[in-house]
Amino acid sequence: MELFVADLVERFYTALWPFLRIGAMLLAVPILSIDAVTVRIRILLTLMLTFLIYPLVDWPIIDPVSAAGLSEIVNQILIGVLMGLFLQIVTAAVVLGGQAIANAMGLSMATMVDPGLGNVPLVSQFLLIIATLIFLSIGGHMLVIGILLRSFETFPVGVAFVQTANFATLVEWSSMIFLGGVLIALPVMVALLLVNAGVGVITRAAPSLNIFAVGFPVFFLTGYAVLILSMSGMAARMQWLWMEGIERVKDFVLVPGVL
Fold first, then answer.
1. Distance between CA 71 and CA 5 in Å, rounded?
2. Angle at which helices 67-105 and 231-254 cross, to 10°
């Protein structure tokens, strides 16, 4: 009986480390991090992935209540969260692009509750749905799981720790929020800028016209028309952003900092 209890405690000590890293990644990665995915679903997915990955790696036995164990708990959570944040930057870029389009069309006041990002414009919500479908269509979820499995080889438990260089890489990649947002919103914003200039000329030529009565329908219809016509280009840019985000996660995993 004592041998069984000792073996059970040893199994728990070894299975804790992949469980923490996988759970932290699922907490931060897009799609699974939204409130619509309940805690029970995340725990079940974490247990399933832990069960699948556990036999593939030799896990060290570290007491989680010791100083080394507490340090390792923080390290495993940091690794998982950083892997998810690299992809969350792509989601933030899509939301920023949708907000820029909504502001240019005059729809900034029309918001919708997003379970992951709070109140976002309708255009951002629509682009987020498209981006999610693109992420699933390119097999992004399978690529992320494969990178997660590889991370246990390059960031072995008890050996490799997150360093400041890893955070610097994340901060550098965060600039893609603005660049990606501009790339997504650029066609609509350029078209509406030209329309705005034309409305300004009309208002100057006929001051008696009500600019709000004339301008808002023009901005609204033109924005939707350009949005529909440029969807293929936007989808290609979203796919490029997802692939770049996955490559960044791969680079983060393949070039760890070791103390």
1. 26
2. 160
